[in-house]
Amino acid sequence: MRRWRALLLAASVALAPALPATAQQAMINADAWSAYKAKFLDPSGRIVDNGNGNISHSEGQGYGLLLAYLSASPADFEQIWYFTRTELLLRDDGLAVWKWDPNVKPHVADTNNATDGDMLIAYALALAGTAWKREDYILAASRMAQALLAETVGSSQGRTLLMPGTEGFTGSDRDDGPVVNPSYWIYEAIPVMAALAPSDAWQKLSNDGVELLKTMQFGPRKLPAEWVSLHDKPRPAEGFDAEFGYNAIRIPLYLARGGITDKALLIRLQKGMSQDGVPATIDLTTGRPKTVLSDPGYRIVNDVVACVVDGTRLPSSALQFAPALYYPSTLQLLGLAYIGEKHPECL
């Protein structure tokens, strides 16, 4: 117990410079958050992925916690955290299982983690714990950050990598390993992880993530694959579609929210992932779009890039929030919160 109290004190002190000074100011308006909750938040506290068989997953719980924090909604945050800690934090190493399925029993069939979900959860807990003076949240965040550092931050060929899960992605697990997912690097969260679990590895993880993105230029559109083998030189991983997929759409948003405004990188990603200005999933081999994604939640990623690169104001469609599917609705709120805080001139 003494060790955790010392850890809590150290984390509380270290978090101060890593977190925003305006931590308690709502960045998402009440009407938008109410609409999101009505559509995706089950009374049990689980965020429902209605585009994926109504399952819940650690990513969704992490996003829900982050959005509840950005909405300055402690009661909703606690509701989501209750489900997360009782239904997903089942592993011995302090990380969350990645998937909870209401249609099967037991609801958890695969106990592997998803590292981006764990990082989102720890990040949101640290933000909320600091803003609302909840030591239990900061302590839980510290435990998860230490587990992430111990179990998922690795190295290969001089690079520091974020493994997508604790099992199945290393060179020992597969012939083309290590395999990474570039959309799992949550750049805004990494400095907070460093405050919670101090290590020089976190800054290198962030730097190497950006440098890897610069080298991941596959196919005619020069885009990263969703799953990338780093066994030799970066290439699309075996056993996965060679595509710029749904998860990859959020990469430019993560870069912008993390304060990484490399214009050349952002413009290459924006142009490569768009068909007539609209985001799409892309077949990397042919360069052809597979699915054009016209939901405002997908389009806002390009809108954020345009704002960051040349100050273009968001179109009125981006400001109107009418949630339909969990994933783009989440991206839209994250995009609006970012623009409202960092680039109000684009509203």
UniProtKB/TrEMBL annotation:
Give me the reactions it catalyses: Endohydrolysis of (1->4)-beta-D-glucosidic linkages in cellulose, lichenin and cereal beta-D-glucans
SUPFAM superfamilies, per the entry: Six-hairpin glycosidases
GO molecular function annotations of the record: cellulase activity
Keyword flag Manganese? no
The UniProt keywords, alphabetically, are: Carbohydrate metabolism, Cellulose degradation, Glycosidase, Hydrolase, Polysaccharide degradation, Signal
Q: Name one GO biological process term.
A: cellulose catabolic process
Signal in keyword set: yes
How far does the signal peptide extend, from start to end residue? 1-23
The top EC class, named as a word, is hydrolase
Query: What family does the entry list?
Result: Belongs to the glycosyl hydrolase 8 (cellulase D) family.
Query: Which protein is depicted?
Result: cellulase
Q: Which species is listed as the source?
A: Rhizobium acidisoli
